[in-house]
Design brief:
437 residues; 18 helices; 59% helix; 2 domains; two-stranded antiparallel ribbon; mainly alpha
């Protein structure tokens, strides 16, 4: 991990092609011909990607603005409120099948990694870096991401928690494979997505598996009878919680690491092998990044993203409704990979239209501030929330978060903590200091 200080001109063109070398016999200060100027500015910074990063990181760091906790308090007072039921659904993870806004946080991370790769390694190549040098950097970045995920998963534990379900570890596990696809033609990348998703389906479907007795549940792997009856009815054994091939792989892999107690199950049903189907999500992001780097018109880029997003939603939802492959984010089923990537394409298209076509960047300045320091924001959100809560109570008083009443205290608390983190990012943005790996 490194802290980089970027000058204003560099900040505006971080993703641009580097300046052209001076021709022999010409003065270094000689004016660059208009043709070369156009080449230099051919791929300006993708502000929509910064805004997308900012949107997701603000949602995460602000704890969804405490809306889940606020909804629970209001529902305790008024259980029949459809408004607060919808808020709670969208700001918590669904129990098994389905999708709410909060479930799109991790797919967005994976998708944006792919979009970013289309720019970052093209820039490195234009600087003269060989494929092997770049692949060495990719391997290093992959290792760092995996270990950072383990570090965050170990926070508060009394020993290293070798756990690979954290989003950083999942990105790290798939990052090197994503790079291998980087310079492939789009048809080869599309074929790769198809093979990855088909392989995932085969891996889960063809493993001998009787699943869980829905009537009695499986308490030994964290599945109560009540939960199973509510969430696993009509779900094929291959896709059931903690009774699938991903769970069986984790029983072997995770227990290879030193642990005080043997690993028995993931409470949320997440699996390490999720990085395989989520690689398809990253590949879709890579294809979108290559599209945005292309010489096609802005209009064509925008509508291609819209069409791709709509297709992802339709195909993913159809696979779910048909009963062929249920849409389960926690084990990243192929239908989920397509459905969530569809939403990611639509979000990016919307921001691209506003930020890079209409150039209304001023309206999303708070997102850009965070998007350009997203890694720092992520670490503050994961590690500093308890400390920040205590700090605010010390200086503002123990009842500071009841400003809008006790029912809305989660909203006030989460927003105050998030604003504290945002101000740190804003200060660093003004100083042109950005944390990178």
């Amino acid at each position: 991990m490194a802290t980089t200080k970027i000058t204003p001109s560099e900040s505006a063109k971080t993703q641009s092609l580097p300046p052209q070398p001076t021709s022999p016999g010409k003065s270094p200060g000689k004016k660059i011909p208009a043709k070369k100027k156009r080449l230099k500015e051919k791929h300006p910074r993708l502000y929509s990607l910064d805004a997308y990063r900012g949107l997701i990181m603000i949602s995460l760091a602000f704890g969804g603005f405490g809306l889940a906790g606020t909804a629970k308090k209001h529902l305790a007072e008024n259980p029949d409120s459809s408004l607060w039921e919808n808020v709670l659904y969208n700001f918590t993870h669904v129990q098994w099948t389905g999708c709410g806004f909060w479930d799109l946080i991790q797919p967005s991370f994976m998708f944006m990694v792919g979009v970013s790769m289309a720019y970052s390694y093209t820039k490195r190549a234009s600087m003269g870096h060989s494929w092997f040098r770049m692949f060495g950097h990719v391997l290093w970045r992959s290792l760092v991401l995996i270990l950072l995920g383990v570090f965050l998963s170990s926070n508060g534990k009394d020993q290293t928690n070798w756990w690979f379900m954290n989003v950083l570890s999942q990105i790290g596990l798939g990052y090197s494979f994503l790079f291998i696809f980087w310079r492939f033609p789009w048809k080869a990348q599309a074929l790769g997505i198809l093979l990855i998703l088909a392989g995932t389906w085969g891996l889960y479907t063809f493993e001998p598996n009787t699943g869980i007795d829905v009537g009695n549940g499986a308490p030994e792997v964290g599945v109560s009878a009540e939960w199973a009856q509510e969430n696993l009815k009509d779900i094929a054994p291959a896709w059931q919680k903690n009774a699938n091939v991903g769970h069986h792989i984790d029983l072997v892999v995770i227990n290879e690491f030193q642990r005080k107690e043997p690993f028995k199950f993931s409470a949320g049903g997440y699996q390490t092998v999720n990085f395989l189907p989520s690689l398809a999500t990253m590949l879709i992001g890579l294809m979108c990044g290559e599209l945005l780097r292309s010489d096609h018109s802005n209009k064509r880029k925008f509508w291609t993203l819209i069409i791709a997003g709509a297709l992802g939603l339709i195909v993913g939802h159809y696979l779910h409704l048909s009963g062929f492959i249920p849409m389960v984010k926690r084990i990243w089923t192929p239908s989920w990979a397509l459905f969530s990537a569809g939403w990611c394409c639509l979000i990016l298209a919307t921001l691209y239209g506003i930020m890079d076509i209409l150039k209304w960047r001023w309206a999303f300045f708070p997102l850009i501030v965070v998007g350009m320091n997203s890694l720092l924001m992520y670490f503050m959100a994961m590690l500093l929330k308890p400390w920040t809560t205590g700090l605010l109570k010390t200086h503002l008083g123990p009842d500071a978060f009841n400003l809008l009443g006790e029912l809305n205290s989660p909203f006030v608390q989460s927003t105050a903590i998030g604003l504290f983190f945002w101000l740190i990012c804003w200060y660093l943005y003004e100083q042109k200091i950005f944390v990178r790996i």
